[in-house]
C-alpha cells in the first residue's frame, strides 16, 4: 500500500513490529506527531497491518454519518467480543443491528429514562451520606461503585453491591478488551490468565442474567417493574429478539455503560476541583433549580452543569478512540483507502486540536454554550446511526450525581492536577484522583 501515491502518508515502520512500540508507549503523543507531520488523515502500521488515523472532522462525519454503510465495526473487534456480546447492539451489523436498534431504542426514550431519575438520585445520596467534612475521597473508586449501583438498580432491578458477579465480570470483560491486548492480536482462545478468568466470569454473568430473566418472565406483566431487563424481556416475548440477543444486550449495556459513565464523572470532578469559581457557579445553579429536591424535569435546566460535563469529556473523553474497518475502497479527504483497512478515530486528538479549539488545553465550560462548533470536532459518544444509545442515560446520571454532590459539599484537589492516564479499554487514571470535602 505504501507505494500508492494516493494512500494517506505516514511513517513506514520497522518490519513485523511496525509502529507498535511507539503506540503502546504513548498513543496520544504518537497520534499528535502523526497529525503534525503527515496531516489529519495519516497512515501507520501495526504488526505489518495497515491502519489509518482519521482526525479530520469532515472525514469523521463521512465515516460515522454520511457514508456509514461503507465502514464496519471490523473483524478484530467482532472476534474479541464475540463470546460476551456477539449478538448484541455493540457488535452486530447490517439488518440484525438495525432490527435490534429499532426494538431497543424505546427503552432509551426520555420519558422512560425519566422514571430512573429517583433511583439515580437516591443512589447518589446514599454515596454522599457516607461522606464527612474534611474527608479525602478517591473519586474514581467512588464513582465506579456508584455508577455500578445505578446500573444494577435501573438495568436489573437488583442491588448488585451485595453480589460481586456483575462487577467482577465487568472488570474481566474490560480487561479482556484492553486496547493493548487488541494491538497484540492475541487470539482469545489462548489459555492466558486473563482469558481463563474472563471465560469463568463471563459464564457466571451469563448464568446470572439468564436466571434474572427467567424469574422476571414468571412474573405477571404488570408486576415486573420498569427496569431495562423487564423491558427487554417484554421484547423477547412480543417480537423476534432471541434469548441470546437479549442476554448479549444486557451484557453490552453493562460493559458499555458502567466504566464510561464513572470516568465521565471522575474527570468532571477532577476539573471542577481545580476550578472553584466554576464549582461555585454550578452549585448556585443546582440550588436555584432544585434546592435539594431534584426531579427529572429539573435536569434540562441544569445547563451550566451539562456544559461542565461536556467540557470535561472534551479534555478527557472516556472513550478516547474507536475503530472502523473499510467495507470497500473509499475516498477520504483526497486519499484512497482500500477495503479492509483499520481506521482509528481518536477523540482525544481531535478534542484537543488547536486548529479546531481555542486554547484547547484549558477547561472552559462556557465554550459549550456557544453554537459555533464544527460538527464532529467533538464526538465523545460517537455519531451517526451507531451513536451511543446510552448517551441520554449517561448524561442524566452524571448530572444527577453531580447535583447531589454539589448541593452538599465543595471540594478541592489534593492529588496531582495532571494525573497519569492509562489508555486501556477506556481512558483510566493510572493513579488515584483525590478530593478533599468541605461541607457547604
Ligand atoms: C459517559 C458515558 C458513555 C460514553 C463516553 C459512551 C461512548 C460510546 C461511544 C463512543 C460509542 C460508539 C462506539 C462506536 O461507534 O464504535 C458508544 C456506543 C454504545 N454505547 Fe455508549 N457511552 C457511554 C455510556 C453508555 C451507557 C450508559 C450505555 C447503556 C446503558 C451505553 C451503551 C452503548 C451501546 C449499546 C452502544 C452501541 C450502539 C450501537 O452500535 O448501536 N453507553 N458509546
UniProtKB/TrEMBL annotation:
Pfam families: p450. It comes from the Archaea. Keywords: Heme, Iron, Metal-binding, Monooxygenase, Oxidoreductase. SUPFAM superfamilies: Cytochrome P450. Signal peptide: none annotated. GO terms for molecular function: metal ion binding; monooxygenase activity. PANTHER family: BIFUNCTIONAL ALBAFLAVENONE MONOOXYGENASE_TERPENE SYNTHASE, CYTOCHROME P450 FAMILY 4. Belongs to the cytochrome P450 family. This is Cytochrome P450. It comes from Halobellus rarus.
